[in-house]
Amino acid sequence: MTSTPAIRLEAKQLTVRYGDFVANDRVDLALCAGEVHAVLGENGAGKSTLMNVLIGLQQPSGGQLERDGLPVRFMGPQDAAEARIGMVHQHSMLVERVSVVENIALGLQRGLGRVPLAELASQLQALAAESGFTVDPWAAVENLSPGERQRVEILKLLHRQAEVLILDEPTSVLAPQEVKPLLLTLRRLADAGRAIVLITHKLDEVAEVADRITVLRGGRVVVCRPMRGAQASELARCMVGSEAMDAAQPSPARTPALTRGDVVIAYDAVMVPPGEGRAPLQGVTLSVHQGEIVGVAGVDGNGQQALADALAGLVAPSAGHIRLCGTDVHPLSARARRNLGLAYIPEDRHHTGLVLDLSVAENLRLHDFQRRPWVSRIGRLRRQPMLQAGRVAMDQYDIKARDASQRTRWLSGGNQQKIVLARELSGSPRAIVVSQPCKGLDLLSTRAVHEALRAQQLQGAAILYISTELEHLLDHCDRIVVLSRGRITGEVGCGQLPKAEAQARIGELMAGAA
User: Fold this and answer.
1) What is the pTM of this model?
2) Is 476 exposed, middle or buried (0-12, 13-18, 19+ CB in 10 A)?
């Protein structure tokens, strides 16, 4: 007779309200020892709010939380940590000005001054090797890429041996060959008696590792069932609703026969030094033609940020040249490059793409708020025209917000990304550099991003698409170049090889094979 697994953490009828808005509506969730429990749902479905309650960042408006069958109330993350509950957030929660090993030492019982850092560093390297990661324990966090920071946070939980581990999109910045070792690690942790929560939009990962699934929609639980026997199409329909799924058309497919025009973006032996969280570029030569989408694949932290920032004018190359629409952009400011027709959709929408405490309408006007009709003759912002334009953009890009005056901070990640898209793609740009545009987005938001980029391609834009999502690159790019250690190690033409073979070849190039 199979014994019932012990419930480590349980939410009963958990409710969270913000005024009249109900983010979680009487949610039941049981996290059991020995199980990987996948939590699915669209952006804005209530997943993040629910997890914030479980780790003490958010207080519930109603319901009960129980730890090992006993009622608990976490007044902050420290209470949850003492109950051996931890979370890897989608956005880094590390202290930037200290090293990896010091970050993990912070909060340890003996205190930072008495923790033997060399011994701790050795433990971290061993954990990293077991998990398939490469992390320098002595590196300053401020010099790490977002993907590297996420791996550090995973190691932090593993080192502290949390009994309930919540991971928010943990594979979103990993190369294909790194995903399976991580999933195996989660499986081993569950088999050792821990309760694992996996928040993801990747249904193949859910099918591979999850024991149980809960689907949230509109703040409510619509499905809670064992993973065995569940179909991906069924889960997707539960996430977005039958009507939305039936109405959804497939994303426009890549058209290899689309005629390429003149070169719009050209890198010529470009070198960028490391610093400020950037890995260097080592003599990159690359071109993107009018009406072409060129993908850039690679494990996060191999020069992708430097590639994007150098084109956008946020960092100056130490050698080489970059041309935009035939113009050498070296002496030009970021604003002048924008005036040439460049749009930049950055990887980090929170820190680089948006001002979270401004409204939807204000974020849509960040580039031209000083121009008429947004400003009066005496220099005052004209809010009514801005709000009206904001409402038009909300309709066009399906941005779900209370209204255009709502503060951007309180929107879901997918709706925040749509604001960046709406702003950057206005005015029919001639060149677009887009970095990790679908990271952490749900099915419908991801499709909306690709449809918007496809529409720009059909208008003749040259698009440089940087992503760690190989599936997206293979489906939507004309060709893919691979960055490894700041160098282009090779190129794969999309459609020229079977997808599995192309993925294997790109994986080899990511590992540094020429």
Assistant:
1) 0.69
2) buried
